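> example.struct
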């Protein structure tokens, strides 16, 4: 019996078998296309997805492809555009708007299947720290109770479905990305995705036609926002919304920015160039979102990164880093100059009551929390219940459907214990990242620092942006959890390996 590996399941089939398979695949393709022409759109989409899955499985079984790296990159890339679709549509105003399936979820499931088929003889090991695992289980259980207690109905079940997928992705990332090579590939994938999204955002500022790419998650017409007197359009890349693009950029860019000051042998010259190009494209794209919260979050992340990097260096290394910091400051200033006027307008213009309106939405959420402090109103129920609890003079819920603070949003839907468990998860994950920063491997330390800075930026944006458990915009937090745990696990494995080598060397000297 042939041993299974991480990159291929079986060697290639015989030529006769391949010819028969191609004939059968052609017949199935013709039947599927015929059905797709007469079926409703969602059913036709399911047929095409099933067909792609069958053909992909055949390709997987017959060709030696690096399947695991492909699935890992697909999982990461799915977070940088709207890669989900609703199997059952409920209401566009809810988030999630129905029972959905995403590229990330499909990639995570395939990684789990491959793991069980290719590692049956490998002894299982506990990857997730027990405290984190118990807290995550408690959060999910509390969300189930909130849905059972509340009035969210099917929309609450849709949120539970989406939250289950996010927890699965977190587990898969923590267990399947917990080695140096996988994390190296992840940094490259994030840099490439940020560069692509930034480049598209910059192009959207020049060509309005690019805003019609709704199939890949481009901005819808009602989501295109204006600032100033209407002459400045905010870009959204593939994230559908300018603030969503800003949140994505400030959350994930520190991962590869933390690698820029160092020359790692693990990366080739063109890969270092990719990091630099991504950094150069990042800043104009972030500026063009005109998301003031995103600008502040990026500044916070960079301040934390510089502080920890500077403190970790020896005096001689600090002297070598100073020229690089000076060059980075010059490039930063040069890139900001063309946007100085619109940035000034955005920072100083009258926001037409926008900030006051967001304070009013917090008042609505506070009323909900006071009435339901333990279990909240139930996941995905804020939109339906906002008008009922709106006691503001201007009835802000008629204009803004969500509270622009995801801490209050989570507390309103899951109660005070729900938001405390959410914050506890972030603290436990940050502790794992902090431990990885103390390890001997410079690459893992830099990645841990970048992830922690990205986590800080994400939590900062939550002070003024909407989002709740189960929503698309909150999926990034579970990927952050998974990567922080993966870095900590990889660091622990290296420490264990070094300890084993030291014991062996000591035994030889005896």
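> example.seq
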């Amino acid at each position: 019996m042939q041993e299974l590996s991480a990159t291929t399941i079986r060697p290639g089939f015989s030529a006769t078998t391949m010819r028969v398979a191609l004939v059968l695949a052609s017949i199935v393709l013709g039947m599927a296309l015929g059905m797709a022409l007469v079926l409703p759109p969602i059913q036709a989409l399911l047929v095409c997805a099933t067909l792609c899955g069958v053909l992909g499985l055949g390709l997987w079984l017959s060709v030696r492809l690096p399947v695991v790296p492909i699935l890992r990159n697909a999982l990461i890339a799915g977070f940088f555009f709207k890669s989900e679709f609703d199997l059952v549509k409920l209401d566009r105003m809810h988030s999630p708007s129905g029972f959905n399936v995403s590229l990330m979820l499909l990639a995570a499931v395939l990684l789990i299947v491959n793991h069980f088929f290719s590692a049956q003889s490998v002894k299982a090991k506990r990857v997730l720290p027990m405290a984190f695992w118990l807290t995550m289980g408690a959060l999910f259980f509390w969300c189930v109770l909130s849905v059972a207690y509340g009035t969210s109905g099917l929309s609450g079940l849709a949120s539970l479905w989406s939250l289950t997928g996010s927890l699965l992705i977190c587990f898969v990332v923590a267990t399947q990305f917990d080695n140096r090579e996988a994390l190296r590939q992840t940094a490259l994938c994030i840099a490439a995705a940020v560069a692509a999204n930034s480049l598209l955002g910059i192009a959207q500022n020049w060509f309005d036609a690019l805003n019609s790419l709704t199939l890949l998650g481009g901005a819808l017409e009602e989501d295109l926002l204006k600032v100033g007197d209407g002459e400045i359009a905010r870009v959204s890349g593939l994230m559908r919304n300018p603030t969503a693009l800003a949140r994505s950029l400030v959350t994930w860019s520190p991962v590869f920015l933390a690698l820029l000051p160092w020359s790692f042998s693990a990366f080739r010259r063109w890969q270092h160039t990719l990091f630099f190009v991504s950094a150069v494209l990042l800043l104009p794209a972030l500026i063009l979102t005109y998301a003031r919260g995103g600008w502040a979050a990026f500044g916070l992340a960079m301040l934390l990164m510089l502080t920890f990097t500077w403190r970790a260096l020896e005096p001689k290394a600090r002297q070598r880093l100073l020229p690089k910091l000076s060059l980075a400051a010059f490039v930063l200033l040069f890139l900001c100059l063309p946007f100085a006027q619109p940035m000034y307008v955005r920072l100083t213009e009258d926001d037409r009551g926008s900030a006051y309106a967001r304070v009013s939405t917090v008042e609505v959420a506070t009323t909900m929390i006071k009435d339901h402090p333990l279990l909240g109103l139930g996941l995905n129920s804020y939109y339906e219940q906002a008008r009922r609890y709106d006691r503001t003079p201007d009835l802000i819920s008629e204009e803004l459907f969500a509270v622009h603070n995801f801490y209050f949003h989570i507390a309103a839907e899951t109660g005070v214990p729900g938001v405390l468990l959410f914050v506890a998860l972030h603290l436990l994950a940050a502790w794992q990242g902090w431990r990885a920063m103390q390890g001997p491997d410079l690459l893992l330390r830099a990645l841990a620092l970048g992830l922690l800075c990205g986590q800080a930026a994400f939590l900062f944006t939550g002070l003024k942006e909407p989002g709740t458990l189960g929503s698309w915009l909150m999926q990034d937090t579970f990927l952050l959890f998974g990567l922080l745990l993966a870095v900590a696990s990889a660091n622990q494995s290296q420490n264990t390996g070094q300890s084993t080598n030291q014991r062996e060397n000591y035994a030889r000297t005896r």
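> remarks
The radius of gyration is 24 Å.
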